[in-house]
Specification:
Distance between the termini: 63 Å
Number of helices: 24
Number of strands: 19
Strand order of the largest sheet: 12-11-15-13-14
Helix content: 25-40%
Largest sheet: 5 strands, mixed
Structural class: alpha/beta
Length: 594
């Protein structure tokens, strides 16, 4: 029987996938098609290729249609479902060869990934526990409850080398073991689905696309450490994740996977959803626990570890949702299988959101140790308009920017940290040669200044002072000695801050200083921004490459550009607001930054 899979992840829903489902069902209902009925239209979670949404896949056959609209539905029914014809204009166009590719398994974006955590995304209906079970859901829980003892589960996780995928990379098994050893009757397990990093949306895709894998992992962890209550902390901006998780929890209770005497055993456990208020600092473990407890989300000193004294001052295990979704895979397949992927110190896979100046934007999952070059140019398809690659920022606002010379760097926890960046939750922002690294550092500092809880002086005041200096440098008011002052301030912030927000806050500044110091010097000493971003340091001029196409004049909001068609145009500097619209629009590199 044929199945039409339609993505209902946030990206595709925003682009109109729900009306597609209605149109498909209505059209199918009005016709008689062999092996196809209304139930053939199946909702699925995010397939990862967000830039191509709405995405529709026809099985069997792996036929991949992208950027589908309601107006395409009749054609899909008549040509593909009734007559077996392929619609070329709906197929993915390879950015290198220009060829249309019929099967998603032949697209480099998918072909070069390895789906472990995202194994069921794009396969199961996130609203159906039956579909999850049909694809192996809760099989690991059965194995854990009836074939393994709690200590054996912890040992399996320890031997697997699973590290927390929320950023810190702390060994999950060690965390579980420490919590289980505390002598108490009350323990908690938490899932961090806050994911506040700009440009990061992997956890959202997991929660929306395969919520039962997260729930199953949490239940197994709770059984291993001896907990009877768990919480999933989801940020306010993820309403679909809250909806699908809430439904999944209800379904799991109905089937006996949650609640009293789970599956007839003596083990009882339940999960509640706790919604965050949008504070970035609540992604930090102790601040998150305070938020769950109904208190102000501020971090506390780390002399008391959360596995000993965490939520409600009880021993608590906190992992992010990607880590929890990995647990059932390890239990099902064994630690040796899991260690067969990735690197020795960073086994397994990692999901990333690949965004920015890259052709194939979306969610990817790759084995640890895959190089940045493979990710950006093989899976990502390279830089749009064949511009030059400049840097990639990993680890969110607390991460770092890595230059072209480090494209062959393997991506794992330790290597990224040694290079001056970090894994973080998995955001990966690609930048081209029109990106100003001083402006990038300023952007992330501005974010962190707004998101600092203000509890400790080094973070509250230090980041604010550095940001002010960056504002001055970008405005053309930088002076000699500013770089050294910023470096000294950064050192004080790292050493004196209470939590990871402050301790890693200067990373975007320090990494751009490390790899792009000449740009900083240009801004300060030559009053020049080579990327043409910092308005106080630039002016736009039209060179002799101009062919008089008039596009720049049409798009200029102040009518500062004049000239006859097919003749050289000029910019009136008195009228120019330096908005950059002409610079980004010109297809002939006729507008340059002076």
């Amino acid at each position: 029987k044929r199945t039409i899979l339609v993505c209902i992840g946030t990206g595709c829903v925003a682009n109109g996938s729900l009306p597609l489902i209605e149109a498909l069902q209505k059209e199918i209902k009005s016709r008689k098609i062999k092996d196809v009925d209304v139930q053939s239209v199946k909702k699925i979670g995010c397939q990862g290729f967000c830039a191509m949404g709405p995405v529709l896949v026809i099985q069997p056959g792996d036929i991949f249609y992208c950027q589908v609209k309601k107006t395409h539905i009749k054609s899909i029914i008549e040509k593909t479902l009734l007559n077996g014809e392929i619609i070329p204009e709906l197929l993915y166009e390879d950015p290198v060869s220009g060829k249309r590719i019929e099967k998603f398994t032949d697209i480099d974006f998918y072909r070069k990934q390895m789906k472990m955590v995202l194994r069921n995304n794009g396969v199961v209906n996130p609203e159906s526990i039956d579909d999850s079970i049909a694809h192996g859901g809760y099989a690991a829980l059965v194995k854990a409850l009836f074939e393994l003892k709690p200590g054996e589960i912890i040992e399996e996780i320890k031997k697997s080398g699973l590290r927390g995928k929320g950023g810190a990379g702390f060994p999950a098994g060690r965390k579980w073991e420490t919590c289980a050893r505390v002598k108490t009757d009350v323990r908690y397990v938490l899932a961090n689905g806050d994911e506040g990093d700009p440009g990061a949306f992997m956890d959202r895709a997991i929660m929306e696309g395969d919520p039962h894998s997260v729930i199953e992992g949490i239940i197994i962890g709770a059984y291993a450490v001896g907990s009877n209550q768990g919480y999933i902390y989801v940020r306010e901006e993820y309403p679909l994740a809250v909806q699908y998780l809430g439904l999944a929890i209800e379904q799991a209770r109905e089937r006996g996977f949650l609640g009293q005497h789970i599956m007839g055993t003596d083990f009882s456990f339940d999960i509640k959803i706790s919604r965050g208020g949008g504070a970035f600092v609540c992604g930090e473990s102790t601040a998150l626990m305070k938020s769950v407890a109904g208190e102000v989300g501020e971090p506390r000193a780390k002399y008391t570890r959360s596995v000993v004294k965490g939520l409600f001052d009880q021993p608590t295990v906190l992992n992010n949702v990607e880590t929890w979704a990995t647990v059932p895979i390890i239990i099902n397949n064994g630690y040796k299988w899991f260690r067969g992927f990735g690197t020795e110190k960073s086994p397994g896979t990692k999901a990333f959101s690949l965004v920015g100046k890259v052709k194939n934007v979306g969610i990817i999952e790759i084995p640890m140790g895959t190089t940045l070059r493979e990710i950006i140019f093989d899976i990502g398809g390279g830089i749009p308009n064949e511009r030059k690659f400049k840097a990639v920022q990993t680890g969110g606002p607390s991460g770092g920017c890595l230059p072209e010379s480090m494209l062959d760097l393997p991506v794992d926890f330790d290597t990224l940290t040694e290079a001056g960046s970090m894994m973080g939750s998995g955001g990966m922002i690609v930048m081209d040669d029109r990106t100003c690294m001083v402006d990038v550092a300023k952007y992330f500092l501005n974010f962190l200044v707004d998101e600092s809880c203000g509890k400790c002086v080094p973070c509250r005041e230090g980041l604010f002072q550095i940001h002010n200096m960056l504002e001055n440098i970008a405005a053309g008011n930088g002076k000699k000695g500013d770089i050294e002052t910023i470096e000294n301030l950064s050192d004080a912030i790292v050493k004196g801050s209470l939590c990871a927000l402050g301790k890693s806050g200067p990373n975007p500044v320090l990494s751009t200083l490390q790899y792009f110091r000449d740009e900083w010097v240009e801004h300060i000493e030559q009053k020049k921004c080579r990327a043409g971003v910092c308005k106080g340091l630039i002016r736009y001029e039209i060179n002799d490459k101009c062919n008089g196409c008039t596009l720049c004049a049409l798009i200029c909001p102040t009518q500062a550009i004049t000239g006859e068609k097919k003749k050289l145009h000029v910019i009136d500097q008195a009228l120019c607001t330096k908005c950059g619209a002409c610079y980004t629009t010109c297809q002939y590199d006729a507008i340059e930054v002076i």
